[in-house]
Structures are given as structure tokens and as C-alpha cells.
Amino acid sequence: MTTIPLAGSTAAPVRTRLWREAAILAGRTIRHWRARPAAFAVQLLFPVLVILMMGGLLGGAIAGSAGNYILFVIPGVLAFTMLFGVETTMIAVTTDAAKTVTDRFRSMPISRGSVLLGRVLADMLTSVVEVVVITLAGLALGWRWENGVLPALAAYGLLLWLRFGLLWVGVWAGLTVGSPEAVSAAQLLAWPIGFLSTVFVQPVTMPVWLGAIAEANPLSATATAVRELFAGVHQPGLTWAAAHPLVIALAAPLLLTAVFGPLAVRAFKGLGR
Fold it and tell me: What range defines the domain where residue 24 resides?
């Protein structure tokens, strides 16, 4: 059990104390990764398996050649991973609540927000490692960014920004579903969200109505925006959302954070009532 040191002075800035406590709690999660390296390795290697499966098995059928499809699918898998990694957050939050770990944290003289923020910070670190692993796999398979280093860094920033917004959804869901078993059912929703997008295929290959829905998916906006930043080429689409992916890629995570961040804090305060 992690011991949270009290602030040295009651006059210490609340914000500084919040971040200090969150960093300590994030360290607790990181130590859990070290204790379970196999589970952490599976989480990191899953997107690489997706790349190999989609690129090797289906790439030729979709894009004419596996090499051409790799250039398209790597940015998509990066966005896809930002969504699917949230499952780990949901499971961890729900498990802590089920094992009364969360109740112990609530009984301690620490900020309520620091417990949730610590979880988010730890999972953001995981996201960085995932992005690095996928990038290395893509480079090994022949993918390259062609628009310079600064646009590439901006693309990675968009990916992590999406993950930040989605993590608050995961924290809220983990606190409200009630049990680890219920999380498994909730995880099923990630699959249609992930595949009903432009992550793996162009919307022009879909029926018009379905392509419009796929383009409205925030996951599609981020995938399209990072493709354009990596390649420096605008991708045509069917709707306003496809014409302005950067706007949606910036706005959607902000909206998710603004809505689900407070909801997560409220759910945390209401545990056990």
C-alpha cells in the first residue's frame, strides 16, 4: 500500500500539492508494471500484432500491396491504440474499487482529484511507450514520416491528446460499471468504435451513409490529421469532418475531458454511498 506524505505546510499551494500527490500515485502504478512484466509486454505488443495482421494478411487486398498499405495503416494503428489502451485503465480502476484500495485512498488526507489524476498520468506514460513501440515497428516495416520532424512531433502530440481525453472516459466508466466482469462487457463497445472509422480503410470504399458516420468518429479525425502531418498531403473525404480533421482532433479530447473529468471526480466521491 502506498503511503502518501502530507503537505509540509497548510499554506502549500493546492495545485502543487495535487500534482505532487498525483505523481506519487502514478509511481505506484508504474511499480505494478514492474511486478507484472508479462501483462505489460502483451499490452505493448498487441498493436504490433494488429499491424502485422492488417498489413501482412489484408494489406495487399485493401491497397494493392502490403507496402502501400503500411504507409496508410501505421498512423491509423497509432490512433487505434489510443482507444484500446483505455481498457487497461477501466480494469485497473474497477479492480482497485472492488478490492477497497480506492476506499483507503478516500480515507487519507489527500486531494480526491490526485487519485484519479495519478492514474491518468501513469497511463499517459504507458501511451508514450506504446507510441514508441508502434513507431519502431512501423520503421522496421518501411514506414516513414515525410513532412519533417516538427509536423511528426505535432502528430504524436495529437495522439497523446486523444488518449488524455479518452482516459477520463475510462476512469469514469471504471468507477461506474461496478465490477471487473462488467468491464469486459463494456470493452465490447470499443470494437465498433474502433472499426467504424477511417483507421483501417478509406471512407470512399464504404457506402456514402456509412462513410459519413465513420468520418464523424473522433478517432477518424485524429487518424486523418496525423496522416496529413506525417505525409504533408491532405486526404479527400466525404463530409465537413473529413475536410477539417485537425479541428475535431483538437476539440474532441477537450470536450471529453471537460465532460468526463468532473463526472469521474463525482463518481469517485460517491463510492460507497
Answer: 14-269
The domain tally of the chain equals 1
Exposed e or buried b for every residue in 159-179, given b needs 16+ CB within 10 A? bebbbbbbbbbbbbbbbbbee
Residue 33 cell numbers, joined: 508494471
Is residue 231 within 8 Å of residue 145, measured between CB atoms? yes
CA distances from 236 to 218, 241, 264 (A): 17, 11, 37
Burial 59-92 (b: 16+ CB within 10 A, else e): beebbeebeebbbbbbbbbbbbbbbbbbbbbbbb
How many residues are recorded in the chain? 273
Distance (Å, rounded) from C-alpha 227 to C-alpha 250?
Answer: 15
- Flag whether 254 is in a domain: yes
- Distance, CA of 24 to CA of 29 (rounded, Å): 9
- Cβ atoms of 34 and 125 closer than 8 Å: no
DSSP state of 234: P
pLDDT of residue 64: 64
Question: E-strand spans in 5-128?
Answer: none
The residues of the chain scoring below 70 in pLDDT are: 1-14, 59-61, 63-66, 109, 112, 180-181, 186, 272-273
pLDDT of residue 131: 94
Q: Answer whether residue 167 is part of any domain.
A: yes
